Amino acid sequence: MASLLTYRIRKVNPAGRVFCNSAHIMADWTKALSVEMFFAEAEKRMQMVDGEGRVHLESRLRLARSMLGTLDPLSFIEQWISPEERYQR
Fold it and tell me: What is the residue range of 65's domain?
């Protein structure tokens, strides 16, 4: 459904591509926040684990978080390409 909507926006209004690009960035950020919620829940549950098991899980969680990257919405906006930038390329 979303791909059909994207197709219609692009076909009807070429400026709609700007919207699609922005929507893509917002969708990526939303996915990143979903993963962050997963990690937050894992951290909460990890508080109930003791000893070496906890040390191991903390290490695994740090590794997994490092793969996630930034959750700063400004970083996502920096990736956005405005129409002016697009036409200057």
Answer: 2-88
Whole-number Å distance between alpha carbons of 80 and 21: 7
For the chain, the average pLDDT equals 77
Contact 32, 67 (CB under 8 A): no
The amino acid that residue 50 corresponds to is D
Model pTM?
0.56
Query: Is the predicted pLDDT of residue 49 greater than 60, yes or no?
Result: yes
CA distance 40 to 34: 10
Q: Give the chain's domain count.
A: 1
* Paired tokens of 40: 């937050």
Give kind and range of the element (H or E) at residue 9: helix 2-12
The structure tokens listed for 13 are 């209004």
